[in-house]
Protein Lines C-terminal domain-containing protein
Amino acid sequence: MATGKIVSRLHLLIDRCVRRYTEIEEVSSPTKEIEKDLLLSLSQVLREIQSWINEIASDSSEEAGEKTIDHEDETTAALYDPESEEYLCLERLVADLVGLLGMKSVHVKHLAGNILVEVSESLVESGSQWDDFIRLLCECLRLAVVYSCPIPDSEIGFGILRNILKRLSQEENEELLDVYLESVNSTLAKIPWCRVDTLFSHQHGNGERNSQGQNGALGGTPTSEEATVFLGNFVQFLCSVVQQVRFAEDNDGFEPTHLILQKTIELIPDLLCWCQPKLESQSGSCMSRYLGHKLLVLMIRLTYQSNIKCTILLSWLEYLQRHFQGFLQHTLTRFEPDQDNCLEGSPFFVSLSDREVNETHSNHLQRLTVLLFLRCSFTLLYSNRHTNKHCEFDCRKKGMEEMFKWIEGQVPGDTFSDHGTYTKKSVDFSTSFVRLFMHEDDLLFKVLLQLLSIPLHEKELLNVEGHSLQDEEQTILFRLSTLFNPVILFCIFLSELHYDHQVLLDYLISKDIGASCAEYLLRCLRTVCDSWTVFVEFPFEGSTNASSSKRRKVLTENSEVEQNGKLHPQAFEDAKDCLISLQNSVVKLHQKKLFPYNPEALLRRLSRFQELCLSHE
């Protein structure tokens, strides 16, 4: 298929479908007959564009082995000129389809959005004017926000941009992604957010649409439901954008990735302000839980993708303490194995009672809340920006105070003064903490990797009974290193898996969490080998009397031991067998070239672990 003038072909195809309808008066509120005809026409357009994409892809694969032809000649360059016929066709094409998003028909909006996504795909496949297309689309959507009521139409626009981004992520083309991020950032920067804020403030004031009056250029005030749906889609869109960013600490600050992250961070206070009334007025509803989930996910992703100012991290900690305090204060030692059966998305989820559904969602939000709290706090505690006293706001001290309050609420300070009870209670807390995250693999490895940043305080361990920990800062750091000792957490992690090496293998070869699991095992095995005595003598007595269901099989002969708690010799043997079995499995897969990536670094760590086991016998 010839791709030189695909924009003209697309424009003619869409113009024939749309033109006769846009000339009809009151097309924004079509009759059922007009809506039906338009839907049929749009469906035909969608199928036609999809067939073109298949043809282009087929032609490209056939030409892959042939000599590459340089298409960037004067004729092709002329097509991309802003005054060229092709560019004008692209303008009209985008304007026509975006215009359909303003119709009062959910089905028409949906189809028009799908066509825009397929147009994007066809231009990417053909290598024709995609840069111009995405910039025009972003500008049209910006104008829709500024000059019309943003709520019903703009949330569809963000959905379209999100779907285009999902397609781009499959292309693995950094140049296209940079153009996309640059266009989105430009759009977000030009939107008058103060006027949007006025609209939401007015909406919170009366809660209903003012169909007679106008709120400036933004149109009528949205209903509460429309506002909530808009916010959910917008936050979801930002989550997707941030997830695709490849952040580099050494960028110059003007790269598209850096700019979009900074803009998103700037929007967080407004988003929290707009969403909070929804979270409070619709507490317990599906939409409320979804909004809370997405806000937490967005902030968590931002902590991984950018160097956030300490004052912003402190403001997020204050927000968590003010609005998610219940999740932070909830005592983790009450979390039992299999407490939430993460069945959401499963056909069995509908069989749960309303109470069980609420508990499942609450446990998920608690996981996100605790992870964000740790991300913000640990950045303040352990980042070089604060440990070297370059911070003028004394944020490290404030981070210490927040961490102290949380630890004191979970494990009171007097626990650490009695060595006899301190070991059991601290291990109980660590066990409950791991159990909280066991049901969500991605969050599990995020939090386990985060906790590896805590330095061990071996000297202080010798001084606990003598109460020599006078310095408040050192006391907090000691408590952290005690509650989140990486070796002990690793022992608990293996115990919760019932020492099933097949589960570890599944983790390692998983497309979603394989890299995170491999990193965790690499770092943990090094720590275990460096702290061999702690690993061998870890006291399991009475501290792990039940385990998670994260296992493939449970041997019946182990059940009594598990119920009564494992003595550390048995726990060590089980851990050793698990890791050596994992080593053997990885070696076999690697020899057959069936392992999805090079596991040699992991195998070296496992070999070192095996050597220490042999010397221990």
